[in-house]
Every structure is written in structure tokens, then in C-alpha cells.
Amino acid sequence: MKEFGIIGHSLSHSFSKKYFSEKFLHEKITGCNYTVFPLGSLKELPALLHTHPDLLGFNITIPYKQEILPFLTDRSGIPSGLEACNCIRISGGELIGYNTDFIGFEQALKPFLYIERPSALILGNGGAAAAIRFAMNRLAIPNKTVGRNIIKGIDLTYENLDEKIMASHLLIINATPLGTYPNINECPPIPYSHLTSGHVLFDLVYNPEKTLFLQKGEEMGAVIENGYRMLVLQAEESWKIWNKA
Ligand code: NAP
User: Residue 175 Cα, ligand 1 centroid: separation in angstroms?
Assistant: First the structure.
């Protein structure tokens, strides 16, 4: 049996197991298993690898995409300048790190790049935000990272988001977990009243389908997109990596 899976702290929000189990079924892929491995801390990773010698690859989700980096024995699959890993291939005992989030995001964002000279606000500064920032820079889209406090890597706080900043940043990406089931009444504290029909709101969260962030954007006429397409695209990229000859 070829084993694949996902590690993360709390995996009740993860659609990956369902996605891969259905993929195996629909595409008649036999002899493969995709398992959810909740880890209280990455200190548990060596024991997990020891007890699962057939593991060929796994995804990494919240909150370990950055913390996993020192565990990699090979970082050649992660472009330089991107300090986050969401996919590992195990080969000959080596843990080879990749990032498929930025690829999934770039592809999922394409239909929304009709905005003339867009600038973006990235809400959050974790592992997913690092991939979004990397993709934005590759696409030459000027971007600012918004966080709760001005610390390293944060350009603006939520309190800094006034009408002028909102008007000059038509792409807004939620890369925080705010609004994820069951906390569906939460949303990033941006001034929603300054949104217009010229804005595009992209939420990395995909459960629920329409988060409060997206609902509030839609009420102001903004174009909205959830994280499901990105999830599928990054999962398919992971699958290609695990099946490389
Ligand atoms: P992470 O590394 O734990 O980072 C989470 C970020 O959210 C941090 O910057 C954190 O800010 C911020 N945050 C958390 N609670 C907040 C709050 N109450 N107010 C404001 N900011 C808050 O997580 P991640 O791996 O980047 O994942 C973030 C989200 O993206 C998750 O929901 C994940 O499921 C989703 N995601 C989706 C896809 C997809 O394919 N659709 C791919 C990747 C990730 P502090 O630093 O201030 O704590």
C-alpha cells in the first residue's frame, strides 16, 4: 500500500482526505491511502515517520508550514525566497520539501487579473501568506502584508486600513483562518464599507463555501472567490510530485 497524508494541528477543517479518497475512487487508483495525521507538535514527526515506513509523501497545513523547514533534508523543491513548505516527498529516507500553494494560488487567481495595474493586501503572515506573497511578487503585483501588530514582515495593521488604502488596493486576500467552520461568525477586521464593485476578495478558506469575509465583500458589490479551486490545484501539484519517477 502506498501511503500519503497530511500533518497539521487541528485537521477537522481539512478537505484533503476527502479529496484524495474520492480521487482514488473516481480515477480507479488502487493501492493508495491518504491519511490525516493530527500532530500536537512537530516533535511527534520522527515517531510518525518511524511508524509509517510506507509513507511516500504528505502535505503540511496550519500551523506547521514554516516550522517544518528545519526537518527537510532537501529544499530543492522550494523556490528561493519562499520560506514555507506544504508538500514533502519521501525518497530514500530523504524529506524533500516543495511548495505547491503558490502554484495553486497563481492559477486560481488568473481569472481575476483583469484589474488594471492591481495592488494587493494580504491579510495574515503565516505559511500560506508567504506563498501568496511569493506568487504576487512573481506576478509583479505590488502587495502589502496586513497583521495584528507591526512586527517583522508586516507592513500595515488592520487599524491602518483607511479609505485611501482600500481604494488603492483592489485585490484583498484572506490568508488567515478567520471564518473557518465552526467559527463562521469571524472575519478579518477590515473596513468593509470602503469596498466597491472594483474590488476582488479572495479567501483561502473554503469551508464554509461563502465565509463572512466573502459575504461582506459581496454585499458591497465586490467580486468574490473562495479557496476551493486553489486547494484542488495545489493538491494535484502535490500528486504530480509524489508520483515523479
Ligand atoms: P498559519 O501559518 O498558522 O498563519 C495564520 C495567520 O493568520 C497568522 O499570520 C496569524 O496572525 C493570522 N491570524 C490568526 N488568527 C487571527 C486573528 N484572530 N486575527 C488576525 N489574524 C489572525 O496558517 P496558514 O498555514 O498560513 O493558513 C492560513 C489559512 O489559509 C488556513 O485557514 C488554511 O486552511 C488556509 N489555506 C488554504 C489553502 C487553499 O488551498 N485554499 C492553502 C493554504 C492555506 P498572527 O501571526 O498575528 O498570529
Answer: 5
65 included as an active-site residue:
yes
Tell me how far CA of residue 236 lies from CA of 19, 96, 239, in angstroms.
10, 17, 5
Fold of 103-229: Rossmann fold (3.40.50)
Q: Which residues of 14-49 are buried (b: 16+ CB within 10 A; e: fewer)?
A: bebbebbeebbeeeeeeebebeebebeebeebeeeb
Q: 206: Cβ below 6 Å to ligand 1? A: yes
pTM for the model: 0.95
- Residue-wise pLDDT for 101-157, tens only, equals 999 999 999 999 998 889 999 999 999 999 999 999 999 999 999 999 988 889 999
Catalytic: which of 17, 18, 28, 65? 65
Residue 115 CA to ligand 1 center (angstroms) comes to 26
Q: What is the pLDDT of residues 179-233, one digit of tens each?
A: 999 999 999 999 999 999 999 999 999 999 999 999 999 999 999 999 999 999 9
Domain 2-99 identical in fold to domain 103-229: yes
Where in the chain are the domains?
A: 2-99, 103-229
Q: Which CATH architecture is the domain 2-99 placed in?
A: 3-Layer(aba) Sandwich (3.40)
Query: Relative to the CA of 62, which ligand 1 atom is closest?
Result: 25
